[in-house]
Every structure is written in C-alpha cells, then in structure tokens.
Amino acid sequence: MEEFTQKDRDDIRELWQHVKKKTVVASDVPDEPKVVELEQYLGQPLVGKTLVLHYNKVPKFECDKPWACISMTWHKKNPKTILELVTFKDSRWCIGYQHPEASCDNRIEYLKFECSDARANRGPCPFLKKHAKQIKDFLDRNWDDIDVLVIASGPCGPAKALGVAHAICDHYHPGQSKYYQAPNLYVRDLLLEELTTVPESVEQ
C-alpha cells in the first residue's frame, strides 16, 4: 500500500473540498484540471451508479430510485457507541464504529461486514479475498436493479470506501474511476481482481 506525503494529503483534502462544492476535479492533463458537474447527493458526486458517503451522512440519504448500500466496519465486534475507542492485542488504538442506519425506502439490499483496509496478516481484521467475493456476489445480485450504490466511508478516512468505488467503476464504468482520488490501492486491486475473474464454468 502506497504511503502518502503531507503534500499528497493536503491535495486530497483540497480535492474533497471541491467535491463538496458540487464539482469534481479531473486531473487527466497535468496542470490543466477541468471541473465536471455531476449529480449530487448530500454534497457528494454520483459517479456512474456509485456514491461514497461519510457514515454519518448515510442515515440522511434518501432516494426515490432503487438503491443498495455497502458498509465495512473497522473491527470484528461493533463497539457500543459510534465513536468508541477500542484496543487490539498489539496495543495499537483504532476508532471503531457501528454500521450506519440506512433508510429502507426503495433500498434493495444492505451489505454489512467487518474488516479494515489492511493487507492479509496485518492488523486485527484485514480486507481479504472473501470480502471481495462478498461484494462481487452482492453486485451480481443487485447491479442491474439499482440506480444508486451507496458505499459508506468510515470516520478514519475515505480510502477504503474509495478503493471499493474505484474498483467498481473500473469494472462497470470504465474511464469514470478517475473521479475517485486517492483510493486504497490494496482494496481496489483485490476487489477488481475478483470482479474480473471469469468463473471456471463459464471458461469451459
């Protein structure tokens, strides 16, 4: 997983500020950014069918079209409160949070599972191939029936949710994933590999 410099983080923060102003900065050409207007929900852009929302905005989300939601918590057992600090065996601290509530109106399905964005064998609950498989199965069931897919971003930052969104856009909306800046590359690559894998029965 790539490490970001302070300048990278400042640039990412600036990009998110533009997004909240109902614009997306697409940096296809160095030093020649363009501003693209996209449909907005709670100040965030709808890219294809994907919408990344901070977890505290998910309960406010309303849609008059069929939609679905994906939420990934940071650890295996939900804390008692949304921003309760929990400690792991290696004595490192991490913010844990519960899956956000989501409106049932027009919602087709809500996928919830527990993982961090760490690689296998790193951290208490890494993002694994089985999690990517869960997302793929979820998309296979619902993609053709929904207009919006909400991906909940956690309180520690959007990288994991952006990684999921980036992979989904790469697969379903080629060319549009560029609007998701600074995704978690490990999560993106693992999910994209799963999405593009052809089942053996189909290959035969």
Output the keywords.
21% strand, four-stranded parallel beta sheet, two-stranded antiparallel sheet, 10 strands, Protein-Tyrosine Phosphatase, Chain A, alpha/beta, 204 residues
What is the element layout, followed by pairings?
Elements: H1 6-20, E1 24-26, E2 34-36, E3 40-41, E4 44-45, E5 50-54, E6 67-73, E7 85-87, E8 93-95, E9 107-114, H2 129-142, E10 148-153, H3 159-172, H4 185-196, H5 200-203
Parallel strand pairs: 5-10, 6-9, 6-10
Antiparallel strand pairs: 1-2, 3-4, 7-8
Helix pairs in contact: 2-4, 3-4
Describe this structure in words.
With 204 residues, the protein is an alpha/beta fold. The chain has a single domain, classed as Alpha-Beta Complex (Protein-Tyrosine Phosphatase, Chain A), CATH 3.90.190. Helix content is 29%, strand content 21%. It has helices at 6-20, 129-142, 159-172, 185-196, 200-203; strands at 24-26, 34-36, 40-41, 44-45, 50-54, 67-73, 85-87, 93-95, 107-114, 148-153. It has a four-stranded parallel sheet with strand order 5-10-6-9, covered by helices on one side. Strands 1-2 form a two-stranded antiparallel sheet. Strand 3 and strand 4 form a beta hairpin. Mean pLDDT is 75; it is low at 18-27 and 76-95.
